[in-house]
Bifunctional protein FolD (Faecalicoccus acidiformans), 286 residues
Amino acid sequence: MKIIDGKELSAKIRQTIKQEVQEIKEHGNRSPLLSVILVGDNPASQSYVRGKENACLSVGMENRTIRLDANISQAELIQVVRQQNEDPDVDGILVQLPLPDHFETNPVLDQISPDKDVDGLHPVNAGLLLAGRDGLLPCTPNGVMEMLKSIGLEDLSGLNAVVVGRSNLVGKPLSLLLQQKNATVTMAHSRTKDLAQICSKADILIAAVGRPKMITSEYVKAGAVVIDVGINRMENGKLCGDVDFEDVKDKASAITPVPGGVGPMTVCMLLMNTLKAYKEHESYGR
Ligand SMILES: Nc1nc2c(c(=O)[nH]1)N[C@@H](CN(C=O)c1ccc(C(=O)N[C@@H](CCC(=O)O)C(=O)O)cc1)CN2
Ligand SMILES: [Mg+2]
């Protein structure tokens, strides 16, 4: 069984991003800039945002974090998003989720200019993905595809993929990306009947449900590739995935750990999207 190491793979990809950023700067161009908007003081969100700041630093990109009080209004938040849209120095805009309860998330995300939407959550980018056209891809699904590629799974013709979870952030876009690579995709979720039986047909099993250790060995076909997107914080403070790693690891041919699996890839793909948006803005390299 192979453990797909997201820390190692993301470090490798970050190295190529770093080189490209360096070349951009050596040519006298401005740096790519990621602007992160954080509303309120959710400790997990604060830590993820710090992770994004450090990631930008590590590849030589500029970073701006806009910290806003939890009590600002929806209209004030939208005003901040619009300012970032209009700022020609900003290539990527990201609103850290979840927003505090009194906000409506979708109307805020709708305000992000699609060409700066490095989370790939704007309906324009979601629509481009659905249509199989070029746009900014959501980071976690894109990171999962990079992990599959890293173990030689690029063309997925003839393979059954089962995605458990149907969120806009992960399950829905990932199903489309897998299908684009010719996998036969089943989208399963919490209301699916005979879930274990359906999962046990998967050559590639993706767990993105948010239920700790739900996927046990009975869900897994011998030799399957198991990708764990879950990040669940346990009472003891430790992280655990949606997959029962110990129970599944000897049955799978490859498996991602939590932590150190999909999580680091998400941040890496964010850098990749910011670089992509930058190139579009600057028409750099054309
Ligand atoms: N606007 C967004 N909000 C959120 C996203 C997102 O992609 N865009 N995803 C998650 C949180 N998230 C990034 O924002 C994120 C979560 C976890 C990790 C990560 O690397 N986790 C590590 C463990 C870190 C730890 O110990 O806490 C790992 O899995 O190894 C990266 C990004 C929700 N919000
Ligand atoms: Mg569900």
